[in-house]
Every structure is written in C-alpha cells, then in structure tokens.
Amino acid sequence: MAIEESWPQQVQHLIAQRRLDPAAAIENADRVMQRDFIYDHPYDMEPTNVVYHMDPITWQQTPNGDPEWLYMLKRQEYLLDLLLASQAQDDPKYLADAKTLIIAWIDANLTLPETWRTIDTGIRLMNWAPVVEALMQAEMLTAADQVKIQDAVTQQMAYLRAHFTDHYLLSNWGVLIVTGPLVYGVLHPGSLTAEDMQWAMQELETMCDLQITDDGVHWEQSALYFLEVWRDLLAVQIAFDRYRRPVPELVTRKLLAMDDFAAQYVLPNHQLLQVGDSDAVQIDSLIQTANMCLHRTTPLTPHMAPTLDYLLVSIGHLSHFHLTDFNYYPIHKVVDSPASGNYFGRSSWESDADYWHVINGNIGSGHGHANLGHFDLVLGGQSVVVDPGRYTYVDSPERRALKDAAAHNTVLLNGENYDPPTDSWSFQSLAEPQAGMVFHGPGLSVVTSIYRVAPAGGTPGTITRQFIWLTEEHTWIALDSAVAAGENQMTIPLNFAPELTVTAQGAGHWQAGSTTIISHAAGGTVSDELYSPKYNQLSKLQRLTLTQDFTDQGFNDLVIAPTGIWQDVSLLTSRQAGNTSAQVVDPRYCYGVRLTTPRGDKLYVVWQKENTTVGDLLYFVDDIPVFGNLTVIRQDHTGQISRQIVRL
C-alpha cells in the first residue's frame, strides 16, 4: 500500500519539476531571520529596493518615512518565504521563525487596533492561513499558542466587520479585506463563525457584481490592482475547491472573466502593462497557476516560465499538473472592452510580437491616471511608447507628474492637464470620455477615441483620435483632431521606453532605436522625464512632445513604424469633386496621409471628419475618388487599387 506523500514532500517535487523556484524565498528568509527587511515580491503592492535592519522590530515606526513600508511589514508576506524555505530545505528553523513573527505581531499589535488598517488585516489573514496550517501539521504550536492565534484571528475579524463601510464596496481594499478571512476560515474550520463567513462571502459577491465588468475588467483602471483582485479571487476559489465547498456562481463567473482578460495585460516580454498605478513586473507564475487551476492550456502556456504562485499553491495544496489532461483554450489576439474603454491587439503570443493598447474610459479610482486617448505600443517585442509608471503614493511633485496627462501618450489643449490632481488620490476636475468605436478588417484595426476636456480655469474642447494599426506593415498611425474656440495649440506627448534614445533625423522625422517616428506637426521637442518601472524606483525616459497651433479646429498626423518600411510619409492634398480649381480643401472635410514604400506601393488613410454640406460629397486624392468618414486605400506599384471603407 502506497504511503501518501506529505505536503512538504509534494512541494519538493514541484521544486524538482521547476514549478517552484525557492531561491528568492530562501534568500529573503535568511534576511528575515536576521531581521533585515525588503519587499520585492512580484505582487507586492508597494515594493521597496532598500534593505532595512530592524531588530527588535518597531512595529509602529517606519525606517524611511514612507508609511507604506510599515503597512508592508504588518502584512507579513515574508512568512510565506519562511514557509517555502523550510519546505525546500527540510529545515524547521524557518518555520519556527514564522511562528515567532506571528506571535511577535500579536504581542505588539493586538491591543493597538488604532494602528491597524483594514486592508493590511485582510492581507495578513491571507498570509497567515497556509503558514498556521503548516505550523499545526508540524505540531509546532502549543495549546497556548493556538489559543493566542485564535484569539487574534477573532479580534481581527471583529475589527474588519466593525470597520467595513460602504466605500469598500467599490474598492480593491474591500476585496482584499474579505478574501483573507474567507481563505483562513476554510483552511481552519471553526476559526470563524458561520455568520462571519456568510457575511464575508455576501460582501465579496456584491463587490464582484459592482467592480468587475462582464468581460473581466476591474473598474479602477489599474492593471496592478486588477491583478491583486484577481489573485485574491483565485485564492478563495482554490481554497473552497480544496474543501469541496461551493462558491457563489457570480463570484466564479467574474473570476473566469478576469482569467480570460488577464492575458491582455501581458506584454510580449511577459511583464504587466503599466496602466494606472502599475509596475512592470513579470506575472508568469500567476498566469500559469490560474490556467493550471482551470485545467487548461492557452497560446501563452508554452511561452511562459512554468513557475507557479506559491501562495495559491500552498492554499490549495496543488501539486499534480499533467498538461496532457488539460483542454486547449484559445484566447483572442485582438480584444475590445467598450465597457471599460480598453482596446488591445497583438500579432502573436511570441516574445517578438507587436502589441498595442488604447484606453479611453473613465479614470476609475485614485489609482487611475490622466490617460484618455492614451496608447501603448510594442514593435517586434521592443516597447516603443509607454506609460511611465507610478513611483510613489506619497503626495509629491513626482507623484503628480506621473499621473499627469503629459506622462501619457495622449492629446492636450495648450499643454493643460485635463485631470489635474489635488493630492495623491484626488482630482480637481475630470475629462469625460465621449465615445469609442472600433473596426477590425483584413490587415488592419481601427480604434476611434473621443473625449471632452474642461479643466478648471483651462481650455474646454473635444479631442478625437483615429488610431489605425496596419498589421502586415507593423505600422501605427494616429490622426488627431482638436476642437476648441479661438487660438489654441494641440500638445501631443510621446513617452518612449527608457532604453530608447530619440534623435531628430530632419524636419518632422525622429529615430528611436529601430523605430521611425514621422509627424507634420509644427513643433517637436525632446526632453528627459521621469520613469518608474516599480514602486520606489525612479529613472528617466525621453519624451517627444509634438505641438500644432490651430484656430477653432486643428489636425495632426503621426506615424510610428519600423525603420525602412516607408520611404515617404506625406500629408494629402485633395480636391472636391466638381471643383477643378486649386482651392484648398478644409481638412475637416478631407484630411489624411499617404505612405509610400521603397518599391512604390502607396497607402492612403483618408479622414472625412465632417459631412460636406456644400457641393459634391466626393473627394479625390492623387486622382483617386474617396468617400466615407474613414477610408484606407492601397495602391500597389502597378497602380492596382484596393479599398477598405472603415466607416461611412
């Protein structure tokens, strides 16, 4: 009769299979045992890059002036590193220290609930759940220890219920508050009352209904906080599945929607897209664990590291994954989320893929940034234009600069921030997304973003952006229009990936690595600006700012493509049918660009923004008749024409 393996033995097998890599956990566990603290896990909400020594631990004093450091200390995620180090090396000293730290928190904090926060309490219970279970299984808790921990859990649960307000129903905090108790309560039967468990699940169900769209987007418009909510929902699902307890259908349905959507936030290098308050972190382990739990493979599976999320694995005691038993689940390369104003496209799931993202939705919570009409672009696996990140939550010039519209690849009027912050979390006024339209046809995708700006004391106006992605040509085109009364200026910042240097190649022509940028804007300047790949990390990137003066209504063009694809990019001259004179056509009736390849093939993108009310509705560009709000015309070097009417 076979002897069933213990969970620590199963963990060792996962390590042997390279499903878990304990190296970083062991390194951090050794630091923690010396009371040296750094928070650098991929899913840390406020990571750090400096080690601070704290022995004895002063639980109420931050060593660096940032209260977020103290919040991270009290969440006790480092307990998981101690647990994995103990299992990986079959060494009980790490687990013994985890017990010491749990008891230390209780002794120093339990009588000081005024120093607690609800979010940290929920996260701490999540982290305690598998660690206390391991301590119980290893018989390392005395009867007195068990009573002390149970009393601490009871008091923390009472604190959460007493301090849970309506505000949390629309916050990632709310989800993190209730999922910790739910997981702890399932892994430790009887530790929470049935009433407590029912309350937590009812609140979670309400929050899932309010916060997550049916297509899986979290309302706060931050990829990182999408990740946190998704991970905690996974933890609940996995814990309940382990003990064969039902999860409300709504919660499971929203979780599955987030699973489907999560892949869109993954860049070709497998880092998280920086949208809103987000960091450029690798998320292979979370993607892979979610798919493993769902018993499916996707086009991403073979391209990502096979590593698993240790927290989720520990909660569910997940150890046997046979890919041959899984179902193949296709995920789309082009995804539209009109509910949130997010649009995504990529050429493949390979690391050298092209990728683009457009956002034109409500700002969400304080984690949102001023990014209406913003786009991200990756060409051949190389990030080209990016969101510069978040850096800090401390109200400061850096915090405000990184939330500013100029830190995003958008359009401003007269350089004015259309969502000016008043502090780290609040805004003086907000621009309004007006509309988003999409078209997907052979060889191209089009996203139209329209938004209204009216900053307090600033210039009111309406911005329309026509984004055209040419699949085969790896080319991104933006045709922009601004409508505002009087003399004004369109300001178009383009924030380039930090590894790229932007150099001028002539009037309206710049080079960034192997990428060419062309615009007929009147002005273009390059400046060094802030870039933050992770919280508490700050460096520089280069920003190209285009400017175009106009009266009442203005237009501008932008083309970004691999160098060598296009020999020439020109603004179109056009004539109205029935008018053979040299009269200049107002760009609002016919505006666009002509792109010419070295072989002589031509591509026309023609935007007829306003309907013609006087004269013929037909226009000609290079003697080619055009009609329709947006039209793409290809003319090969032999003169053969093919036409795509994107929008009438």
From TrEMBL:
Keyword Lyase appears in the UniProt entry: yes
Keyword Protease: no
Alphabetical keyword list: Lyase, Periplasm, Signal
Residue stretches making up the Heparinase II/III-like C-terminal domain: 360-547
InterPro entries: Chondroitin_lyas, Hepar_II_III_C, Hepar_II_III_N
Location in or out of the cell: Periplasm
Domain (Heparin-sulfate lyase N-terminal): residue spans on this chain: 28-289
Protein's name in the database: Heparinase II/III family protein
